[in-house]
Amino acid sequence: MRRKRLFLAAGACLATVALALGAAGGTAVADPVPAPPPYPPVVGVGAQTTQNLMNDLCNNIIKDGSGNRICQSWDNGPQPSTIKTRDGAGVCEIPRPSQGGSGFDSLIANPTCVDFARVVTATDKPTRPAGFTYIPMATDTLTYAFRGDGTVPPNLSDATLKRIYQCDPALTFPSNPNGFRPLIGVFGAGNRTFFFQKLGITDSANYTTLNPCVHDTDASGAGILANDGRYLTHPRQLITYSVGPYLAQITKAEADIHGNAVLGSINGISPLDENAFGARPVYNVVRTSDIDGVAPDNQNIKNLFVGAGSQVCSNTTAIKKAGFSTRADCGSTTLVSGP
Fold first, then answer.
1. Domain limits at 189?
2. Is the separation of the CB atoms in 176 and 170 below 8 Å?
3. Whole-structure pTM over 0.85, yes or no?
4. Residue 275 located in a structural domain
5. Would you put residue 334 in left (φ > 0), alpha (ψ -120 to 50) or beta?
6. Which of 213, 231, 266 is the last residue of a domain?
């Protein structure tokens, strides 16, 4: 109910400003504040959906007994871009991940430089190497968004959305001059992976080539990033959007980039309903060896993420402020990677 009240209260504040599609990729990056050094010991990268929540926790809330920050949360962003996560000349200068999938890739590829990855789905679990644990943090819902002054219906069925994202010529542009113009995040992005799997669509790196009505890049050719309503520049466009960031944006709890976007309902169920089509847990992924009780564990990581009383899970006010719902299984370590 809290999410519904928040949404209704903020609804009157919906902006009517639409920025150029190419400008959407220029969103300012809010890296650890103040910027390192000093370098907090636990490093995280990954999905945009939960980055502002983790930024708030790491920058402002979670401290050690001396008042020092414990974690550093780095924003995703367009490539090429480099971040530096550890002290020392030439140490841990690594590519900035653009989304949750590449954040997980970075966690795998940079074991001395990255300690956790923000991700929004565990559906890739069988494809990931063993040795990683998905720790749930909160509940979010993924839906579609459209321009408030556009012509996309405010309610679509999952069957219709599947036809749209498979470029049914009866429904989509350019086969239908007045058809839908679907947008999606880049290949590997958690929101795209989750959305396509919910719709029963098999994704691939060349999906938008095979289905040219779907666009995953902006007017400049840069990959579409998550939860940014400014990509919607045409009345028939629609795009995936997470409820948590949307609520935080319209209430100004984080930078407001929703533009003229309005959230749609799927199968007649509001995205604010706990039974919504796209309801899902969101996670932080860590190396299992850091938390499994076999020495040497990383106590900072265990304190941050493991258990309902962890530093992340116990900060329910911050979780709700970021637009998410709390979970009874926050901090659980039962979900592990591998076939």
1. 2-24+142-266
2. yes
3. yes
4. no
5. alpha
6. 266
- Reference 185, options 47, 18, 279, 45; nearest CA is 47
Long-range contacts of the stretch 58-65 (C-beta < 8 A, 24+): 58/32, 59/32, 59/33, 61/315, 61/318, 62/304, 62/311, 62/312, 62/315
Is 80 exceeded by the pLDDT of residue 309? yes
User: In the structure, what pLDDT confidence band is assigned to residue 36 with cuts at 50, 70 and 90?
Assistant: confident
> pLDDT tens, 102-132?
999 999 999 999 999 999 999 999 999 999 9
| Residue 158 host element (H or E) | helix 158-165
Side-chain half-sphere CA neighbours of 27 within 13 A? 29
Tell me the C-alpha distance between 228 and 239, whole Å: 9
- Domain boundary pick from 237, 266, 295: 266
Domains of the chain: total: 2
Which of 250, 325, 320 lies closest to 282 in space, CA to CA? Answer: 325
Q: Per the domain annotation, does 223 fall within a domain?
A: yes
